[in-house]
Amino acid sequence: MPPTASTFANANLDEIVEALSVDEAIALTGGQGFWHTSAIPRLGVPAIKVSDGPNGIRGNHFFRSTPAKAIPSATALGSTFDPELIGKVASKLLASEAKLRAASIVLAPTVNIQRSPLGGRSFESFSEDPHLSGTIAAAYISGLQSEGVGACIKHFVANDQEDDRQGLDSVLSPRALREIYLMPFMLAQKYANPWAYMTSYGKVNGLHVSESKFLLQGVVRNEWKSNATIMSDWWGCYEVAGPIMAGLDLEMPGTRGFRSQYQMNWSIQARKITVKAVKDRARKVLDLVQKASKGCPESIDGDGIERTNDSEEDKAVMRELAGKTIVLLKNEGQVLPLQAESLKKVAIIGGNAKATVLSGGGSAALKPSFFINPFDGIAGALTSSTEILYAEGARTVKGLPTLEYEIVNAQGGKGFDAWWHSHGPDDKPVQDPIETFQIDETNMFLSDASPKGITERWTMKLKGSMRPRSEDTLFEFGVMVAGRAKLYVDGQLVVDNWTLQRRGNSFFNTGTEEERGQFLLKKGVAHEIYLEFCNVRGPAKGDIDEIILTGGPGLKLGGAPVVDETEEIEKAVAIAKEAEVAIIVVGLNGDWETEGYDRTHLKLPGKTDELIKKVGQVNQRTIVVVQAGSAVEMPWVDDVPTIAHSWYLGNSTGDAIADVLFGKVNPSAKLSMTFPKRLEDTPSYGHFGSENGTVWYAEDLFVGYKHYTRSKVPTLFSFGHGLSYTTFTFSDLKVTNPSGPDLSFVATVKVKNTGAIKGSEVVQIYATPCLTSQLTHPVRRLAGYKKAHDISPGQCVGVEVNLDKYALSYWCISENRWKIEKGVYDIVVGAGADDVKLTAQVEVSKEVYWDGL
């Protein structure tokens, strides 16, 4: 009988640790395979499974993954300014998704700080502000863990860019480390006690975090009194001794790691590590397994099969959540909300309108169990009598769009028939396949997906046919690989990404650039599509090494009709001219914003800016909807009356956008990060990115809005900005005096709906430094917030925001402790970081020092 959760839930861990052999203790400190901890059957210790988040639960597989519910990106969740909502979503939606995947631990939330919107994974973290990040994260964690599913908060700490992420050294001051980058983790620990932490890849002030005794033992365990298990990011360990002695409990994954029996035992013999340290690390893993055994035994004791379950109730929750994350940035002339019944002709324009833009890329990417694109959502909200005109206008993709909806297999299903072949002694594929299967996707990261018994070098062959087209179409195909591939259409070689390759940054920096080729698709013909793919990297100019990509071969097939973008823009302008309303849906996708590399600019792709400007000139009721996980430049901001930022919204994207455009949802979200006018205005400009392995956090405390409010650099849209279809006023701010051990105090303010429809508004409370302080501080920082829901027209409600020592403290370098200065502090109500509405004062009668949480 395998070990069970029901038995282990009440096991005596002290006795188990005492009984562990050295080899068993070593096994517990390293993963088993990609996604599991190690079981110790002799002692009744079960294995538990972890799964990637943060905007859904993928399960075990990148390749042929289980269809999943994708919720909005973290930047979108942060924009709700609504921890209660996020907690409910985590408990009711994400926890149940984890259980459907038999996962005990979700590798989420991500609470790194957007010190630059260029960060490839900016969309995965909640905000540029540590208070907003930490409080939303705490709600996310509490929601998950209330249902017995553990949260693993990540990436601890200062993992704020992707380029050179394994080797770079983030050099930052003690104050910046404490007040900005550790703060969201600290708040999450204080209010939610996550079961696990994941260390970042890089170094902080000279030492890899996975080897930092100061951060792991000193801060997390000693100062914060956390009992969490600390694990590495995947392949985020770089030696044996350092992480063990620093307090890193679990190395993940269990493939090609440092914690093999040989290396660990050899290190013990060499006295690099001690048996006690190994058992200490094993004990923390046992802690995590026992929490999971108590919290959700069915994930451990069940059949392990991953499932999908899309209930109508869950779909409604996802749609409602997505609508509440959309930020209305501009609405001159009250173009929105639209009245569907009055519209006779609507133009829908843009490269994202019909695209499947679900989330950012990398480990956050999911296969959606369903998806509504913006075009279909908007069309569904219009009446049957409305004429809809469409033009792509300008391409927004980086790589050509995937083709899973364009290709069918021999049985008529979506995608390919596929065959896996071992290689013979001559290094050629053996004729008889080792496995035959179907693939319903054309973007495939195979990670650990190859079948048992296959040779180290292998080939996968894929065959399908294009759905017949209604007219002759010159079509462009694109192939991107980690490995090598050739694409044939009707037996003709169209794309060769095999013979000579161009190195790129796809597939977590192991892949190639996209190679393209064109083919004339004939009307009504189901052309045969055949791909041959091998997991061996091909030669490139100046690099002839052929490497077997055992850790992550990948293949992406994309394609689209060849278009003349000048003609497409002209078409878009023409239909906009005759339509009553022009809705432009543009933005980025998971190729532009992804794990593995950073953006190089903040511009929208291709000719998007030109498209928007020209459409805005011919239609005074132009609405621009931008899909992006972080900030983009908008040089056309004065050329259109209405702009909505939709982030990445998950499965219900199109319906949520339509709900806001047509007034079914009154927008109430606020920007969780500053939108700069240009990249040069950002606080980290000139020192973002690795310089010979070092990234200098030279902006120090002045991250995001703290930079703009100090330097008075004008922004495109400020942190905390967001409009409604109604209007609000703030009045009668009152603040109690700080008292008690935590210097608790309360800010109360009245919020009145002065418009014509019901709406929700966020009260944002900012604190200034002590007015007599001689130290450098931000001008103001977010200290608390509260969302007032569903205020009726004419109604005035009182809102209380609870504040405490965190609102007034700074990290005192000379004392190596938190300090609150004696004196007077301004407490500010803002409608955004740069829009002060009301001010009151509090006084602290004596200076205060404090430690811990």
TrEMBL record:
GO-annotated biological processes: glucan catabolic process
GO molecular function: beta-glucosidase activity
Catalytic activity, EC: 3.2.1.21
Keyword vocabulary terms for this entry: Glycosidase, Hydrolase
Protein's UniProt keywords contain Hydrolase: yes
SUPFAM superfamilies: (Trans)glycosidases, Beta-D-glucan exohydrolase, C-terminal domain
Highest taxon in the source lineage: Eukaryota
Residues in PA14 domain copies: 411-573
Classification via SMART domains: Fn3_like
Catalytic activity: Hydrolysis of terminal, non-reducing beta-D-glucosyl residues with release of beta-D-glucose
PANTHER family linked: BETA-GLUCOSIDASE, BETA-GLUCOSIDASE-RELATED
Protein name per the record: beta-glucosidase
